[in-house]
């Protein structure tokens, strides 16, 4: 069987000569080959049970003799990445060769790690370095020598992350007892039981005489059943992931991530202990402090105080560096909430149903049709007069028919002004007082009536829609519009500001005027003043918009309860703008649940979370969390669709214009009466009929 051995020896000297006599303490161990035999048994058992891509061996010169020809002959054909370090090397800051070898082992997915270092401090510093910079795969299997220096209180956090570990503790045979033989005690960390002040390992098996005493599974899955252990879960109120409401003077915590947590706790058998970080309303997710520590929710995770974190954590490199994140359970649209301006065009209500070109066409048709009516009417009048004159000339004794002399209805269109007015009256669906004589005028009247009916029906339908629907608003819906608007942008956290500043496109302009703000409701008040735009996920922006309006309506109430029924929400004053959420997403960000760094719970939690997403539970829980907010939005839209006096400004303006024009006309008539008619020499107030008869004859 082919055996591939990859060796990277991190030593300054070109060759290593190791003699067992140089280590008198381990002389008997090397002589009996007990360590070699137990390692062969453990590794071969792992190869049989699991698919082992390679084995990472980290040892020093003292234990290098364990890996001789016999070891490789009896081992199954598995590649080894062997890293030999000097006894004085500080593995908290390893040299280049050692570091590259560790990275290569991690890249190749080596599992297990076999660490044989005589110096327990060297081992502890290696584990700390590998955990801090993720050089070692903490979820892999580990085999190492038992050393009490590995169990110092400063290293207890390591054993919350590396749980698949076997400690080999060698026991010499008892002197004076013939049947007594050397044996190994195999122990592991007491996960999931929490480590108290003193680390007490848990025995797994005993190896003696080339075999295991109990034949137990050495690397059993410790996360499938946590035996009802209490896990600390830090949360941050952020809709829709975590929704905190008041219930009988106590906080009731719900939301999508709370439902996910409850499902995981049931499947993995643990009890979640929820708590908020100190000054959560100020620090929120937290940031890096001048002393290098972190505040807020991230501070609880970095300091190892919490096992899980809930609070709409974005799946980004910044959070991945500080914590472990589960697979994303959803993707959120992150955008801006911006001020909107109401376009007060109610005074144009009467002309809004048609566009400018439509009104021009209507006026042209009115004028042209009125002139056609006038032309046809004049033609019939002239025709009747011609017939009358012709008959009088041919037969002066013939009696003239009055019906022919006075055609019915032609007076309606006999004058150009009357023709336009009656044509306009038909457009307003006002019937004619008389049906005009002449088939050409009658046919034109019928078809013009059809045109008027279609036009009036269209106008009425459009007018109804305008009066029933909310007034149009000027909104910011794209990033281009936001950049051109010059309003100040803001959001939470330095990382958000860096995201915009480091962008390579026009979004960088937003970063130049981006401000950090911790209170979203203070930001909402600035947005209502028309000077600000706030950045967050779309669902949370809906929440703060509805909550702000609810608080303004219920000023006397001290807190907001999202389960309460509200039938009307409105701005507090006309000077404030309504809040509008941009329809254009800046970015769609995956959202995950947080675990402490290198958490052993993550693989199994990801498995269950994937199933939860696939069956649609996350979508259902999201709809439940946002149900009240969406219902309040619908109520608001229904109220906006009601008729009010403001929408009828156009009618009052039209009436006012009519009053003004009538007043001007009557003043003009009075001026004409007093300045022209009364000064006429033929004017006689006692014989007005004679005056107008003479005036008409002159014309």
UniProtKB/TrEMBL annotation:
GO BP annotations, alphabetical order: detection of stimulus involved in sensory perception
Membrane topology: Multi-pass membrane protein
Sorted UniProt keywords: Cell membrane, Glycoprotein, Ion channel, Ion transport, Ligand-gated ion channel, Membrane, Receptor, Signal, Transmembrane, Transmembrane helix, Transport
Record bears the keyword Transport: yes
Transmembrane segments: 356-381, 408-427, 447-468, 648-673
Domain Ionotropic glutamate receptor L-glutamate and glycine-binding residue range list: 243-303
Record's signal peptide: 1-15
Transmembrane listed as a keyword: yes
GO MF, one annotated term: ligand-gated monoatomic ion channel activity
Gene Ontology CC entries for this record: plasma membrane
Pfam hit, one: Lig_chan-Glu_bd
Subcellular location, record wording: Cell membrane
Family: Belongs to the glutamate-gated ion channel (TC 1.A.10.1) family.
Stored PANTHER family: IONOTROPIC RECEPTOR 20A-RELATED, IONOTROPIC RECEPTOR 68A, ISOFORM A
Protein name: Glutamate receptor ionotropic, kainate glr-3
Organism: Galleria mellonella
Gene name per UniProt: LOC113517273
